Amino acid sequence: MKFQADKSDAQTITGYGQGWIAVDKQNHETSMLVGSRGMLQPWRPVRFEDLTAGDFEELAMLDVEVIIFGSGSKNRFPPPAWLKPLMEKRIGLEAMDTASACRTYNVLAGEGRNVIAALLQA
Length: 122
What we know:
The protein is of the alpha/beta class. The protein contains three helices and eight strands, in the order βββββαβαβαβ.
């Protein structure tokens, strides 16, 4: 029996490091929103301390089933009250450090899931 990797049309995070994220081999030096259905745009907050409830309200407006939140170099969780708009729309949010979020996004996107990675740089 021969096994072959499935070819996914989803954007792939091809690298990451301190201060940069590569999507389909293009380097970006800002916090990013990366979606399996084509979204690729800068995200306003740079550091965890820059986050506001409004950032999560904006995420709740997206047509997505799950959001992978990369909180920077350490795993940190946003205040639960900020997640209410996501819960009301039944959008899941998983918080982890940005490196883990990049890897998790790739797995879910490769499975064909409708996922967005919200990735902080610092």
